[in-house]
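Reviewers of the previous submission asked for a worked example of the structure-prediction workflow described in the proposal, so we include one complete record here. The input consisted solely of the amino acid sequence. No template or homolog information was supplied to the procedure at any stage.
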Amino acid sequence: MNRPQGLVRGALASMALAAAGAVAAWAATPVTPGWTADPETQYLLDVNIRQLRLGDGVRAYQTPEGTCVVLGDFLTTLDVPMKIDLAAKHASGWAFREDHKIDINVAAGTVRFGSVQEKLSPYSVRETPEGWCVDSAALGRWFKLGITAVPSGSILLLESEAKLPIELLREREARAARIRPASMPLEGSPRVKLPYRMWRAPALDFIVSAGVTYNAGTGTKVDRGASVLAAGEIANLSYDAALATDNRGKPRSLRFRAYRSEPDGGLLGPLNATHFAVGDVQGLTSRLVPGLTGRGAEVTNRPLFNPVAFDRTRFEGELPPGWDAELYRNGELLAFSRSTGANRYQFDDISLVYGDNRFEIILYGPQGQQRSRLESINVGDNQVPAGKTWYWAGASQPGKSLLGKLLGEDGTTTPLARDGPADFRQPDLQAAVQVEHGLDNRTSVGVLATMLLDGEERLTFVEGSIRRSIGPALVETAVARDSRGGTAVRAQALGRIGSVSVSADALMANDFTLNGRRQQHYRDARLSFDAPIKLGQRRIAAHADVRMIEEGKGNRSLEAAGRLSTSFNGFNLSGQARWQRDIGSSDARPDQVDLSLIGTGRIGEVRVRGEAVFDAAPQRRFKAAELSGYWSASENADWEGAVGYDASVKRGRARVSHIRRFNAVAAAASIEAGTDGSVAAGINLNFSLDASAGGFRPTSQRLASTGAVEARIYRDLNDNGVRDSAEPWEKGASITTGQRVSDAVSDDEGRVRVAGLAPFQPLAVGIDTSTLSDPSLAPRKALQRIVPRPGVAATIEIGLVGAGDIEGILVRDDGRGFEGLDVELVDAAGKVVAASRSDYDGFILFERVAYGRYSLRLTPTSVAASGSAPAIGNPIEIGSDRTVIRLGAIRIVKADRVALAETPAPPR
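From that input alone, the workflow returned the following structure tokens.
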């Protein structure tokens, strides 16, 4: 319920504008005789369209022929891309869509709008101290709007059949603001369980490509390839499978995994696991042994999202052909990866900083797709809770896939060449068990036991560790011993000194098998810093690290690296330098120094990404560079272009691609030419098959690797919580999933779907009440909690019941409004269903409250600020006989008194 506030604001703005006009240093030259702009007669109009108020108003004058509006204010309010050149007496641009161009030439006395050209009347454009003032009737004709000026009501009323871009923007902003209740604790929302089935047909993501290349030396070559990702359920387990072909269309790799993941645990009875899997799994990664992928099994009760090492983490995932991946940490661009024959992205040895680490991996596809993967790691808070025990156990055959033999091979990778009998870089079998226990909130201990089998040789080792938080730092020490008598000792620390993050680690090994290789004498020490640098208003993220490695006595190498990252004008830039020197070796190589620069950003409507690589030593040379741009021509059509040069083969190249997106498929056609005379053309198709509704329905939405929610919205006429056959479906409504609003609306059967959700991360599903056709309706359950699973659409029902409004005014003892208090609306079951913050005059409002009994209470922060008891006001009951409850003044008094509400006003 909106309260009129524009009157005071409009009056103040009018006085300010009038004062500004009065002191203008120059006098306006009127275009027409008989009328001159007088700043004292200027007034301010609020711009309204469909009950939506736009901007801060426009300045206007009353002329003998009607109302004229200051053109600059009008363009700013509607966000119209037009430029006005007062000196040249010319304005040009376009309004609302690019094909509706407007050209106003006062000097020539003409105006063109769209395909129409007309002569300017003497009264269409007038010069004022504020710039051009355009007659409202002419303005409406040029912009194809209905424009009615109501000076008595200080309103400029606009009418348009189609919604204007500024309207759509305001609606999106309003929807985003209304999603705020989704930030309420998920634990307070009812959970919708997604049951497993013995069989659920898979969702399939397909990427199909074909191309032809001509080269004068090799002739014509035809390539074709595909990758398929499937996700479904079998025997009450989730499963995923990935098939990829080579460039001749023959299957090259096939991976399969069956698993269960549950963020809250409870799997496998007494094991209380959060995850277990069989098939192609990744082994445990530690400082002493790499985590290799192969067929096997794993089980753990660790949190699903946790770093793989003390101060390091890694990311790996599917990267289809033609896709790129960018990695950001706390907004800092760290690296990006291009698609390779492995069809996966992999970011290894990614450093963590003490405190919050917010990682975002953005995938860009050839059809304009943009997919994000978000993970947050808090170093310091990821300790094992006091009294809790975390474990991980697994065994696998690295480099061998579960279904490799179906492709005529027993693995997806080439076996490593054996380097003596003690080479365990890719063993035939690896098995490990890790257990960690929290002694208190700051201390935990752990033990790791690992067994590696290579042919007839077996190696085992055991490591014990202790981890402790000390102030703003996390410290870990460990000792390991293997079955051949070798020992290893390591120490690590991660902390923060002011705004600088510091990381240090050291490893010493004697006669120990480290990362698969026997090391008689090994020393490794590393120190790194991450610090923000402020240059004026510019913030630069700086990283530096230095590392010394000694393998065998006297054989040492020294490495140093530095990185500077910053953002400005929408660009993310990262420059990096690396230096390496061999010390004490008879065959030492010369110093190696390489430089690289990567950047992403936007230039107007074009998304730009570039990379350049240089060698500075042992010789200075340019190695390679690429610059690409991506432009969206419309909602369903895009263009992409790229130029690059590779100095190693002395070849330049240029590529242009056109992308079209349809409901069932996204397609891209591209052509590329090189300076060596080669020419290539290709096509790429991206689509999914959805089996959730029976059969396989093609869709351009990605389903197999992400979660989805399908909501069915109905009117719960008898308020019994279930849909009865006679109760109607609700059409045209949108749902919210976390901080996201569905692009589609519910159909005739009340069905609406949102795909592309992060799997195994709980989120709240609600409804965007602004899209409901009846303003007196609201969902009985404001939010419902779900945990999406890949390839499976979680189905929920949202019942709509009658609703009304509750309003009141929080006041102090002296009667003044109490501003800034957060008030919660609590239902009869004790659950918070809505929240409101008191306005400057103490006003609070709860809109679309489902019928029922409620009470009000202050949040703990507001209780501390006001000194009042949490409960305020009297119990509230809202129903069909009282749809608007006006509580009147609610006095907020000290806790030793009672906060009372005056008698509510009668219902309206």
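The CA atoms of residues 5 and 644 lie 57 Å apart. We consider this example representative of the routine output the project will generate in years two and three.
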